[in-house]
Amino acid sequence: MRTRFASGEGLQLDEQYRLAHLPLIAPDHPRVIATQAGKVYMMGRHPETFSLVLPIPGDALLRSAAFQELDADLRSELHVSELPEIVQSVDSCDRRALALDAEFIGT
Q: What is the top-level taxon of the source organism (predicted)?
């Protein structure tokens, strides 16, 4: 949405796309970046991870000091025009109170 295209110019695939997405849709494309130092992708895929999801009461989460701190940090750092889907997600906690969970992901 932020890219300005000029008439007659070809589409340029940025490095992040060529690393994370292009290998998944066109693995033989000559501009694919298969892997890169410091990145977890190998041909567009993350290493396998396991997660544990624990359902928790929404009101308990919303009362939690840790959650309130995270919520305040997100709201102070986010710019609605740049990341509307995250802001909507943060603002939807009341509507989703019965479906909230805590997720722990290993690395």
A: Bacteria
Distance CA 68, CA 50 (A): 27
What tokens were used for 26?
């066109």
**Residue 103 is inside which H or E element, if any?**
strand 101-105
Above 90 in pLDDT, residue 69? no
Hey, where are the domains in the chain? Answer: 1-47, 51-105
DSSP characters for 6-74?
-TTPPPPPPHHHHHHTHHHH-TT-TT-----TT---BTTBPPP--EEEEE--HHHHHH-HHHHHHHHHH
Q: Could you tell me which of 47, 48, 49, 64 has the C-alpha nearest to residue 102?
A: 64
Token pair recorded at residue 81 = 């025009």
